[in-house]
Amino acid sequence: MEEKKKFTLDKINLILIAVGVVIIVIGFLLMTGSTTVDEFNPDIFSTRRITVGPMISFFGFLFIIFAILFKKKSK
Fold first, then answer.
1. Distance in angstroms (rounded) separating the CA atoms of residues 24 and 55
2. Mean pLDDT computed over 28-35
3. Closest C-alpha among 24, 19, 10 to residue 69
4. Alpha-carbon separation of residue 73 from 25, 32, 68, 70 (angstroms)
5. What is the DSSP string of 8-29?
6. What share of the chain is helix, strand, coil (3-state, %, to 5)?
7. Which residue, among 7, 8, 20, has the nearest Cα to 67 in the 3D structure?
């Protein structure tokens, strides 16, 4: 007989975790930019790099925690 393996996380949990990883990657991409090797570049202190990018990444990590704990309502 063929037994079906029961995983701890359902398909919906894995999809939500993937969405959370994409949110984190977007946050890290918002934090990137040019470097200041030869001359000072004030863009390294922009709001996008210091505030927006880290907040989006943080919300992505929180979303992954939610995705792991998410339980589908049974009928």
1. 10
2. 86
3. 10
4. 30, 40, 15, 9
5. SS-HHHHHHHHHHHHHHHHHHH
6. 65, 0, 35
7. 20
* 9 and 39 Cβ atoms separated by less than 8 Å: no
pLDDT at 40 (0 to 100): 80
Mean pLDDT, residues 47-67 taken together: 96
Measured between alpha carbons, how far is 19 from 63 in angstroms, rounded to an integer? 8
- Helix, strand, or coil (residue 57): helix
Residue 33's region, left for phi above 0, alpha for psi from -120 to 50, else beta, is left
Furthest-apart CA atoms within the chain: distance in Å: 70
**Amino acid, res. 58:** F
